[in-house]
Amino acid sequence: MLCSLAFLSVLSGLAGRMPRVIAGATLASVALVQVPALSPLLSVRPLGAGALLLAAGLATLTAAAVLPLRRALSAGG
Predict the structure, then answer these.
(1) Domain segments of the chain: what residues?
(2) C-alpha 37: how far from its chain's center?
(3) Angle formed by the axes of helices 2-12 and 49-76, nearest 10°
(4) Is the pLDDT of residue 59 over 90?
(5) Nearest-5° angle of CA 30, CA 32, CA 34?
(6) CA-based angle 7:49:6, to the nearest 5?
(7) Rounded to 10 degrees, what is the CA torsion of 65, 56, 8, 32?
(8) Burial 24-54 (b: 16+ CB within 10 A, else e)
(9) d(CA 73, CA 47)
(10) Residue 42 pLDDT level (bands cut at 50, 70, 90)
């Protein structure tokens, strides 16, 4: 989920209303899963610190990988 959020954020620049709504909903769903009192209601377990750090690192790598694509699309359009 964090990688898709990074992809959306970089490509859209969060310039419009819908990208911001989608990004907010994604962050809210990640937060719901990470709250120990709420995660059992969703039948999931929160990520441990190491797994959460790995997910954040991979999302950062995704954003870095997509950035040249955004630059190319901006230059071409």
Answers:
(1) 2-76
(2) 22
(3) 20
(4) yes
(5) 70
(6) 5
(7) 170
(8) eebeeeeeebeeeeeeeeeeeeebeeeeeee
(9) 35
(10) confident
Using alpha carbons, list the distances in angstroms from residue 61 to 7, 10, 30, 74, 75: 10, 12, 18, 20, 22
CB 14 within 8 A of CB 73: no
* Mean local confidence (pLDDT), 29-49: 89
The per-residue pLDDT for 63 is: 94
Distance CA 75, CA 51 (A): 37
Tokens describing residue 11 = 């490509």
